[in-house]
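Honest question from a wet-lab person: if I give you the sequences of every part of a complex, can you actually get the arrangement of the whole thing, not just the pieces? Trying it with mine:
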Amino acid sequence: MRNIFAILPLSLLLSGPALATDLPADPLGSVMWESMARTYYPGGKIIFDDRVKLMVPQAAEDQFFVPVTVDAGALADVEEIVVVADFNPIQRALSFKPGDAEPYIGLRLKVEQSTPIRAGVRTADGVWHMAGRIIEAAGGGCTAPAQAHTNANWMATLGKTRARVVRGQGEEARITLRIRHPMDTGLADGIPVFYLHDLAISTAEGQAVASLEAYEPVSENPTFTFKAKLAGGETALAVSGRDTEGNRYAMSIPVPAPVGN
Amino acid sequence: MKSVRHFLATASVLAVATTGLVAPTTMAQSAGVTIDDIMNDATTPQDVVTYGLGTQGQRFSPLDEVNATNVKNLVPVWAFSFGGEKQRGQEAQPLVKDGVMYVTASYSRIYAVDIKTGEELWQYDARLPDGILPCCDVVNRGAAILGDKVFFSTLDAQLVALDAKTGKVVWRKKLANYQDGYSNTAAPLIVPTKKYGPLILTGNSGGEFGIVGEVQARNPENGELVWSRPTIEGNMGTLDGKESTMTGTKNESWPGDMWQTGGGATWLGGTYDQGTGLAYFGTSNPSPWNSHLRPGDNKWTSSRIAIDPENGEIKWGFQTTPHDGWDFDGVNELISFDLEKDGQTIKAGATADRNGFFYVLDRTDGKFISASPFVKNITWAKGIDENGRPIYNDDNRPGDPKEAADGKKGKAVFAVPSFLGGKNWMPMAYSQKTSLFYVPSNEWGMDIWNEPITYKKGAAYLGAGFTIKPIFEDHIGSLKAIDPVTGETKWEYKNKAPLWGGVLTTAGGLVFTGTPEGYLKAFNDKTGEVLWQFNTGSGIVSSPITWEQDGEQWLAVVSGWGGAVPLWGGEVAKLVNHINQGGSVWVFKLPKQSASN
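Yes, you can. This is the full assembly:
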């Protein structure tokens, strides 16, 4: 007993910033885990947490478009959701800050080969709540030219967007966006890096709802799904974006009335 | 509004306002390069923050550590590759600030390099559309820098501001529609104004596509347009978002509506003289090349114009080739210098024109002082009269196709110089030590004839056919030392291939320039003797720089063959078609132990 009490203060001292030795073992057994944790989930404690729901297919039907959904609705005070793929040449895909929206994000990713896909959910106490799944995939999702480039005039449709808000019961609303953008990774021969980087949703009055930063692995023509709680009188949402070339995008999405009203 | 792309889902498109604007008088003074640094660049050799080593464009460095005695010891420190498969013409002049080099490359790329190590700090590749329409290779001539931003223009006619530390895009503005034939290759020019603070000035390219030449001035903080000034008479300028004044008088020197597609591109950018407060831009050939379609002087094509940066008004213009019929695309830089003549100091400017004549003008009012041929065997004009107007050889103007029996091809003539000019884009240098200009020139002629042509947006608008021929067996390139007082050539260095690179001169008594054969060469500024040369592995078609860092004099030049010669070169191709492409920066200095030799 005396020994344990003597050691305790020392271990408290060491438990400040997460050290590599504090890392929980990776349930997926990835050789990249330590590096991924250090690079993309810095700061707080890291735990694997079943309350984070990560939905990915077992095998990628198309390595250019792998649907990924993260639902952290079982956690309170979520500040950020970061999605990575261990064996992609560019690993970080997305950082989503739900703000006033639900901690829920749907997107599509490119994968270069079979890889763990991870979602880390940071709560207000600084803890990263992790979920991971391995996806089987054929190679090459990140290094082939975007489909857009088969058309020499692809720039004419750059930034064109389809968006929809579907109301559920009460305040519930589901927002889906699809933006025309090649999301060039810079890894295809002769095609410089060029991707949609910032996206923000706000109310028509300009009050921030949610924001995200997208990176190269997000699929061409990025498609995002968000969930938000909207007051009854809300008739439109504003979406604004900016890509790595400084092109700015802005639109207004009409919001239908809640179901049952 | 213009830069905001449209979304399908709704017709309502919202402009995203740029936030965080700073008052013009204080902007960009907080970090990095100040407007004073830019104005003093010629006398502060610790950095190179302007295209031209000073906005006057003299390309003279007061550094003299490297001199005629020890230049033979110059050795490379490092070479940096631009990489990729895009090894086309590299015409850039690097900038240097606080140990970082900013250098642009073909296909609208820019790099920041750590000068001590030669390691890349960042790289930005503009995402160009597939349909760009550059006439004469996919070059870029350099960047501008102010505050914490680096600026350069792109082949799809955009101006990009990047964070100097990270290379991330701060803003990007469309200068013109690339689909209509506009592009940009010149280094932007930053000038001070009382009303708006520093402004960033850009020209445009596209004189082969029936565009209208223009100078635009923008706020460097956010890229917003302050004024624009078309070069062709009849077109309206703008100031503060409203129409300002018309350039010249409509139809004074243009027939019908030809002024709407009249050319006069300002594709080489400009120089600026703080004494007069004027920005000097050269303007390109008129469109189309077939001069019989546009009787009149066609102002202000093939001219130098002086613009007041406060409001974009043209203070004066001087036309070197009125009613050009040979593509004497007189865009050449006007370099401000003090002319000592008859015991007087005259605020002069000198320019070596595509048409083969070296002009000295009064830079305060554009008054003609003198002109003298700087290439041999000029055919198109007998000389320049006392008012600065060419005395044409009418027989040497390519004929009107309408007078041909079949109406398809006018009478062909052999004219000297060729349409690539006695001097093309490559900037000359002025030595404050010798009071001589060092002019990279070419001795060549052309067969040229006119053909019928009608304007079609975004298509080449020439109405001429041509082929270039050397006029001497042993050389085309000719670096000349020219005395601006007498117009005499003091010495000449003959180079087999055409010269296509800029010149640098130093207080160390040296003149530097590169050759298509790959050499960076150092010449004695008084004799033209070659004192040192180094082969960079590909042709040099760029402008060298020198600066002082950590107590040592450094030199840099970009290597990479290309530009207009291999594209248009005619018979000249024999001299150059074996030259391999490249894309790299070479940096030189003296080894420490031999610096005192």
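Two things worth pointing out. The two ends of chain B are 61 Å apart (CA to CA). Chain B has one domain: 35-289+296-594.
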